[in-house]
Amino acid sequence: MTITFSVGENTPDAVLAVTADWLSEAAEVIALTVQAVKRGEFDHVKEARAQVANLRTALQLYIEERNKVEKLRKQAAGAVGAAGLDFDAARDEIGRRLARLRDAGGGG
């Protein structure tokens, strides 16, 4: 499977980089606001509240994009679905079903 991005479209890695910048910027503003509040200056609280909302949105975007990138990497590596198989659980389920068949008898 080949995934191509059209000209002008941001790649997932580029979106992640921008989101990481947003996170850093929001964290810096929040830290400065906390310091201002400790000094008794409360005029930056409204801005901090907006930055927290932006931080939450950026973090959610970052997580979603990171998951998309990981999915694309797995697809490119041909490992789609391989990580989702739980052989231990499947073995246990087969054992339970065979035990039920044995307990039910031959039926014939």
Shape: elongated
Order of helices and strands: HHH
Task: Evaluate the radius of gyration.
Answer: 26 Å
Question: What integer is the average pLDDT?
Answer: 76
For the terminal residues, how far apart are their CA atoms? 51 Å
Helix content: over 70%
Q: Supply the number of helical segments.
A: 3
The largest sheet, given as strand count, sense and whether it forms a barrel, is: none
Number of DSSP strand runs = 0
Number of domains: 1
The percentage of residues in β strands lies in: under 5%
Query: What class do helices, strands and sheet pairing give?
Result: mainly alpha
The low-pLDDT segments are none
Q: What keywords describe this structure?
A:
elongated, 108 residues, mainly alpha, 0% strand
Topology:
Elements: H1 12-38, H2 45-77, H3 87-104
Helix pairs in contact: 1-2
Summarize the structure.
The protein is 72% helix and 0% strand.
Write up what this structure looks like.
With 108 residues, the chain is mostly helical. It has one domain (12-104). 72% of the residues lie in helices and 0% in strands. The chain has three helices and no strands. The mean pLDDT is 76.
